[in-house]
């Protein structure tokens, strides 16, 4: 799916900032794609964008109302439906990361048809894909992998894409999860694809490109996560990365949502290379990205120095210390832009 | 899904035996679940069961009409729809392995509602699953894995289940593909599950059972197949096998449908153990099952002796030489029944 820009972000009346993290993520990385935010009375979240009515957003050039917040319970409240219908009647498309399908709500479906507008359900996959082929595509690719789910793979890929572009590389970000799709304006939530087509969808998400162009691919799950490793392996095979970055959170002891202990960074490097060789025999690790939020600055630097030396790789916290060290490694391994 | 038995097998008017391989597979393994076959004029397939009309099948006790053949082009021909409606009106459920959803055909949907009958679309997954948990379940499990797709994993699992039961083990077959679901009467086509739930579906397919009971689980794909390895890994993690059997076809050089070379048997053993340890630290290989159809009897025996010695494991062709050697290995490793 391709989502028309610029966006008008709908935050509804969510009771806390976390419920609007999709909107916050979009503003963090694509503020220039957003004309403003729509907040209903009582909204406790704020992206910092100008507050607007839907009509004001339309007048400011918005093409799509993005539902950038989740309500409790997963149902779409009636007063949110009212806002969505108002946006469709104003001539906007609507894109949602909610579990509920927009077109399943009669008033929204009718308003979209009446106005000839698109409805995008980013979390639900409605595309069909071919099965993966495993053949080499032109262009170069970097995949974020992890010792667990939710260890900063999306942030790392976005920061790497930004740093690569700043250094003169022709780089683009490839989204594989719902917030990422809003940030890239294209993609699909890989975990919502039918199992037979995971690798095929990953091939579609990182298509053939110029020999010197780089695709920085958002990772999903972990090869060591007993719930989601199948998605991770299909993504690894389909994205056939030349390089990968291992993302890690050093204070976590068990994998998210299960009782399984965290693998070591070396475990992840070894298994990623072993499995990744199937579709890219030259796959290699280009760095380690650590979320050091739980450590103070001295501890963080000491930790990064220690694991960098241990693995012979650049280790950084993308938030605190940027991605320059890993871009240097890419430059040394694959050449300057 | 649970499919009511006994079955009446519908073969339609398919032009060759291969088009009815689902029906043939059911008769090979569960002849006693079938009361007869329904063939239309011109049908070139024959399961060897008594020919019956739908009314005769109902009178013989059939509970479900199983569409055990595929027509060319994937559409359901109008005269097949007529037979299906006749079956529903006669009080039978209908189960299908076709790509088309039975309930999407208005006449079938209406007949099912009119008669209060069930429609089962085995190839389409309509169930919801939890995500995988990775926690150890009681009971013992054997999974068929492979160097490729379509190397005899279903046949091997069924033959192993039969041989285990014959030796006095409390064994059952767990289906993960469409023909397997008809043969087990329960299950889901794992490749049709949403990617996030592969491991969770595999956990549901091989649930907690008695400590001494064995589940023999149909495999899917290969960890080395660039299209389907994600399904294979999710199945491995979810099924947490105690033992696995590597299935192999010795004349194949490339993996099915792609240009990727076949892995070695040792590659498959090593990676299956490495990944399988995540949810069962004691996972081990209990044997090798080879489809030797392309070899004459002497060649087959020589080949099996060679790879058996090389890997220190029993190697057999389930069709030609049975599964006794692998049951012996299970008995030696895990104890007599």
From TrEMBL, chains A, B:
InterPro entries: DgcN-like, DgcN-like_C, DgcN-like_N, P-loop_NTPase. Residues 129-327 form the D-glutamate N-acetyltransferase-like C-terminal domain. Residues 40-123 form the D-glutamate N-acetyltransferase-like N-terminal domain. It holds the Pfam family DUF1611. SUPFAM superfamilies: P-loop containing nucleoside triphosphate hydrolases. NCBIfam families: DgcN. This is DUF1611 domain-containing protein. It comes from Roseibium porphyridii.
């Amino acid at each position: 799916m391709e989502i028309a820009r610029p966006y008008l972000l709908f935050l509804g009346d969510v009771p806390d900032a976390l419920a609007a993290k999709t909107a916050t993520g979009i503003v963090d990385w694509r503020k220039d794609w957003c004309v403003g935010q729509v907040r209903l009375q009582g909204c406790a979240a704020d992206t910092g964008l100008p507050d607007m009515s839907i009509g004001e957003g339309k007048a400011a050039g918005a093409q799509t109302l993005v539902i950038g917040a989740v309500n409790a319970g997963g149902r779409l409240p009636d007063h949110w439906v009212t806002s969505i219908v108002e946006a469709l009647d104003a001539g906007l498309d609507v894109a949602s990361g909610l579990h509920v399908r927009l077109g399943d709500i009669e008033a929204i479906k009718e308003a979209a048809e009446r106005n000839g507008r698109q409805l995008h359900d980013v979390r639900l996959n409605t595309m069909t894909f071919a099965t993966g082929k495993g053949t080499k595509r032109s262009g170069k690719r970097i995949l974020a992998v992890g010792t667990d789910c939710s260890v900063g793979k999306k942030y790392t890929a976005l920061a790497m894409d930004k740093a690569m572009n700043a250094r003169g590389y022709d780089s683009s970000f490839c989204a594989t999860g719902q917030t990422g799709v809003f940030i890239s304006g294209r993609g699909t939530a890989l975990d919502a694809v039918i199992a037979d087509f995971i690798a095929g969808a990953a091939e579609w998400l990182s298509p053939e490109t110029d020999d010197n162009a780089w695709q920085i691919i958002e990772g999903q799950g972990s090869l060591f996560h007993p719930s989601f490793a199948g998605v991770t392996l299909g993504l690894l095979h389909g994205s056939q990365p030349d390089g990968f970055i291992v993302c890690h959170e050093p204070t976590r002891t068990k994998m998210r949502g299960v009782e399984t202990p965290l693998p070591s960074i070396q475990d992840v490097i070894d298994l990623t290379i072993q499995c990744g060789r199937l579709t890219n025999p030259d796959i290699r690790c280009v760095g380690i990205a650590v979320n050091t939020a739980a450590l103070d600055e001295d501890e963080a630097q000491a930790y990064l120095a220690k694991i960098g030396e241990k693995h012979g790789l650049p280790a950084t916290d993308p938030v605190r210390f940027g991605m320059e060290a890993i871009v240097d490694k890419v430059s040394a391994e694959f050449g300057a832009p």
